[in-house]
């Protein structure tokens, strides 16, 4: 999100709405991953109820290199 619009609750509102849509579709778990140093995103995901379930090195096919990443998960419903 552009820095001018950060800190206004938009990201959290969008993420929570997406979780509601997933729940309505019958999904029970939401998973997301990000770069381990993306602390702003990790804080947002944790505020929205996600917990870190994995932290390690993973190959990024889009960047072509191994990256330190975290995987987060939230139980829906």
TrEMBL record:
Keywords: Acyltransferase, Ribonucleoprotein, Ribosomal protein, Transferase. Residues 1-68 form the N-acetyltransferase domain. GO terms for molecular function: acyltransferase activity, transferring groups other than amino-acyl groups. GO terms for cellular component: ribosome. InterPro entries: Acyl_CoA_acyltransferase, GNAT_dom, YpeA/RimI_acetyltransf. PROSITE patterns: GNAT. PANTHER family: ACETYLTRANSFERASE (PTHR43420), N-ACETYLTRANSFERASE DOMAIN-CONTAINING PROTEIN (PTHR43420:SF47). This is Ribosomal protein S18 acetylase RimI-like enzyme. It comes from Rhizobium aethiopicum.
């Amino acid at each position: 999100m552009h820095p001018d619009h950060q800190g206004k609750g938009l990201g959290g509102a969008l993420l929570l709405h997406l979780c509601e849509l997933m729940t309505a579709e019958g999904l029970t778990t939401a998973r997301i991953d990000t770069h381990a140093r993306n602390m702003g995103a990790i804080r947002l995901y944790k505020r929205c109820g996600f917990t870190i379930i994995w932290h390690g090195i993973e190959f990024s096919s889009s960047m072509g290199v191994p990256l330190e990443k975290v995987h987060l998960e939230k139980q829906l419903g």
